[in-house]
């Protein structure tokens, strides 16, 4: 269900007011800070992973006592594992969403009305029951109104 011109205008005014009052919250809603933080975590995870591999190589190459070699190897493995987990989990963060939506006017919006989600096009021959929750609710409401009239 599309918004009327009046509703779109009011929504844009509310978005502008939100940006003026709390730019940090507006940035969070746009997803830009999430994307930037996820990229930082990915790079940091890669650096920590390489450091862990370096510790493992040092443990093998240096002529250390057996105990010290084992401790360095285990420490290197733990650091490497932590870096891999950090890098892999950064891609599954809330910043996973696409860039902000661009309206017909060419301006990007917060995407708050649609929850920031991009909807997939429905497959032919597939019923709507598998669609997002709100679409199903709107369809039920529409059917009830048609039956009542």
TrEMBL record:
The keyword Transmembrane applies. The chain crosses the membrane at residues 42-62, 68-88. The keyword NAD does not apply. Pfam families: DUF3040. Residues 92-149 are annotated as: Disordered. InterPro entries: DUF3040. Keywords: Membrane, Transmembrane, Transmembrane helix. Residues 135-149 have a biased composition (Basic and acidic residues). It comes from the Bacteria. This is DUF3040 domain-containing protein. It comes from Nocardioides hwasunensis.
